[in-house]
TrEMBL record:
A Pfam cross-reference name: Chalcone_3
Coiled-coil annotated spans: none
The keyword Signal is assigned to this record: yes
Organism encoding this protein: Ideonella margarita
Domain Chalcone isomerase intervals: 35-201
Keyword list, A-Z: Isomerase, Signal
Name of the protein: Chalcone isomerase family protein
Amino acid sequence: MVTLTRRNTLALLAGAGTTAAGWPLAALAADPPIEIDGFKFEPTMTVAGKALQLNGAAVSSILSVRTSVVALYLPRKQTTAEGALAEPGAKRLCFYSLREVSAKDLSNTFLDRLRQNASREEIAAGFIQIAQFGSAFSNRNKLSRGDFVTMDFNPTSSLTDIALNGQRIGEPMQGENFFRMMMKIWMGPKVRPATRNGLLGDVSGATGAGG
């Protein structure tokens, strides 16, 4: 077993590529996964060939019933909603379903939250994409506990793809502004603070009620 000596500590503080013991700094400094209600989100993810960092994770609810645990991945960590929404490049929103939920109810909840948190101008500009987004879920009967949904934005194609358990559902949706609007489902101004704050890196309330 190698002891982390004063020399190794100084190497870390100095930003050296490895410690004196030969440990890669990236391995020592890597953030641990975040686990909520038995579901784990890894600290890094690759989308469209780009390395993303786990910005945060939180519980999300429908009518005060905990329905999913959601995570946000960005190229750089952001601690404010404004910074997260403005961050360019590849992005991922993803969630695990905590219980069986009607896909129609889930779709309707997402669309309601878009109306509550996005501006009229955003909704008008993204009308086609919103319809595509809603139909991706409404064409299914239900989501079961443990089902995993990913929503990935590719900056090269400027398309957002949705996948359920690794299989694409629905049609790709055009535009980075649409993905930013979709982010507001979980971090808009009328979302419960516990959910928004969790996605911004404050996981202290991640096991509480979410928005």
